[in-house]
Design goal:
Chain lengths: 292, 317
């Protein structure tokens, strides 16, 4: 399927334009984490293409008309809240708050808390996340409210693959299918890594596609580091909503994608680059929109 | 003293059910969720009348709390229903992050609290829930005294913006609060005035405190009885005004003595007006199977325990 089928409107950016945005998002990630010497760059980098596609092409949203209820807009929920650097970057770059505010990430009195929250009133964030496994339940509540309100817009979620070890995820998975929450597109960052090592070594997820299918979801797979594939697969996912089943997109990614020394390991899950490493990372990532 | 006739014998959970049904009729934003205890929570009337606004989530309380939090985002006022144990301890992290920290307008409605759950025993008799809930920033904690007041409190929390914990119980219990007695969250009720000792109670033990006050009156002791139905925010002015008069206080609660209403009162007193206090509460133990009356007697929450505590605290003045 061509990426053109996923273009939401005539003004939607091209794949090349999205890739240029994603490069800046990756710079934002490593610069945020480096500046405060704290945060989670690995998963953030791996999901940069997905977040860029989501906020600059897929979501029907109006950052300038932000409201908690999000009436008349698509909503996104980040369940694996520790990859906040990538979310903050696309929120700022798409207009939810000033890009310069990225400089406050994880600092005292900032709205950009280590894990995302509504507590400080950051536009674009509708739920606190960080303690894992809770986001799917919350997103389903928002999806049910949309149905009650006659709002045809969609709910999107992202979860970590390690996060799927939490039992609440499977309570929610059962509920979504049983109650036909079909205005919901969930995605899993299937990078195969978590803090203590490879997911297969820590606690294998087994047949992940089979599990979601058996739970009654309509399941798609995609390469989350291919902008073409993200756009086309998410368009397929959208086409499958409203048919009585929740939709799951299992997204293969590479933790640390875009920064060579952060890839192919779980080591960069939650540590910050030093000055030399930052320099090396930034050499690999073109500054396309101007650094914060 | 003011005497309160027994108007009826009804369970407080039915007061919740009646309140929820009334809200279904009067407030289209109200929705309800239940984790396979619809009959026990008396939510069946709401489910029947408003099926599109009722969500049966199955035996999955963690998911229920998250779904409730999400429903608030679309402007709904969700009431969750399950036993108090499964409404708090089982789902503490979900409440902490997705409801309290996120500031969501969820009403956590908890039945079968405390020892008076009875024969099911200690696994279900949570005695720690008020402590757990009052520690959460922004959480309102309400423990009404009888059926009528539970009905009133259900209506009141719907109109209160922010997360609320409403605690009630299983057994039939004396109904004595007049339906026209105003109920306001955070406003304690002086049920009878007295000068010698203050009895502060919540939940089922309010009736026991009134019985104790009658016993004390026969012995020439004038007890003031305060129904502290809201544990948080606590009506500090009412507590301080009463102890300024009586100089001593007995707190009465169906809860562990650690962390509950008694501790909340003690914090007010030690901060503003150090005053002798005795606790009528469960002495840091779990419960067991038995009838409600047997359990209240065995665990020291009965009328003689309150009168004894009153005499003891008066001697400490």
């Amino acid at each position: 399927m061509s990426h053109s089928t996923a273009v939401a409107s005539p003004s939607a950016p091209s794949v090349a334009e999205l890739q240029r945005i994603a490069s800046q998002v990756r710079r934002d990630i490593v610069r945020q984490v480096h500046a405060v010497q704290s945060g989670h760059p690995g998963g953030s980098l791996g999901c940069a293409d997905f977040f860029t596609a989501l906020y600059f092409s897929i979501l029907r949203h109006d950052p300038k008309a932000w409201s908690m209820d999000g009436a008349g807009q698509d909503l996104f929920f980040l369940s694996n809240g520790h990859i906040s650097p990538v979310w903050y970057s696309v929120l700022a770059r798409s207009g939810y708050f000033p890009v310069q505010e990225l400089a406050t990430f994880r600092r005292i009195s900032s709205r950009l808390q280590g894990h995302p929250t509504t507590h400080e009133g950051l536009p674009g964030v509708r739920m606190a996340s960080g303690s894992l496994g809770q986001g799917l339940s919350v997103a389903m509540g928002a999806a049910l409210a949309k149905k009650l309100n006659g709002d045809q817009h969609l709910i999107y979620t992202l979860h970590g693959d390690g996060e799927l070890q939490e039992g609440q995820i499977w309570e929610a998975a059962m509920f979504a299918a049983a109650k036909k929450v079909d205005n919901l597109i969930s995605t899993v960052d299937w990078n195969g890594r978590q803090i203590d090592g490879d997911v297969d070594d820590v606690l294998s997820l087994g047949d992940l596609c089979g599990k979601w299918t058996a739970f009654g979801w309509d399941v798609l797979e995609m390469n989350g580091n291919s902008m073409d594939e993200v756009l086309s697969t998410m368009a397929q996912a959208k086409a499958r909503t409203g048919k009585g089943k929740p939709v799951m997109v299992l997204m293969r990614t590479e933790m640390g994608q875009g920064v060579d020394f952060m890839m192919h390991s779980h080591a960069w899950h939650g540590i910050a680059p030093n000055d030399a490493q930052l320099g090396s990372a930034l050499e690999q990532l073109e500054e396309t929109l101007g650094d914060f | 003293m003011t005497h309160y006739p027994i108007l009826d014998q009804k369970d407080t959970r039915s007061g919740f059910g009646a309140g929820l049904l009334e809200l279904g009729r009067t407030n289209p934003s109200v929705v309800a969720l239940c984790a396979d205890l619809t009959g026990s929570l008396k939510m069946d009337a709401f489910e029947k009348a408003f099926p599109e606004r009722f969500f049966q989530v199955g035996i999955a309380e963690a998911n229920m709390m998250g779904v409730a939090a999400g429903l608030t985002i679309g402007g709904k006022i969700p009431f969750t229903g399950t036993f108090a144990n499964f409404s708090t301890g089982r789902v503490y992290d979900q409440i902490r992050q997705s409801i309290a920290y996120a500031g969501k307008n969820v009403k956590i409605c908890a039945s079968h609290a405390g020892l008076t759950l009875g024969e099911d025993g200690a696994t279900h008799q949570i005695l720690e829930d008020v402590g757990l809930m009052r520690m959460l920033p922004g959480m309102t904690v309400v423990v009404p005294a009888d059926h009528n007041q539970t009905h009133q409190a259900t209506l009141a929390i719907s109109a209160h913006e922010g997360p609320c914990y409403l605690r009630f119980g299983r057994p039939k219990w004396p109904v004595f609060i007049p339906k026209d007695l105003p109920f306001e969250i955070g406003k304690a009720q002086v049920l009878t005035e007295g000068n010698d000792v203050t009895l502060i109670a919540c939940g089922h033990l309010v009736w026991r405190a009134l019985q104790a006050a009658e016993e004390l009156e026969k012995a020439g002791i004038s007890a003031e009885v305060i129904n502290l139905h809201t544990i948080k925010p606590l009506d500090e002015a009412a507590v301080l005004a009463s102890v300024a008069k009586t100089g001593c206080v007995v707190t009465c609660e169906e809860h562990n003595r650690l962390g509950g209403m008694g501790d909340a009162v003690a914090q007010v007193l030690c901060t503003h007006r150090p005053t002798p206090q005795e606790y009528v509460a469960v002495n840091d133990s779990f419960g067991e199977s038995g009838t409600p009356d047997e359990l209240l007697a065995k665990y020291g929450l009965d009328v003689p325990d309150i009168t004894a505590a009153a005499r003891k605290v008066m001697a400490r003045k």
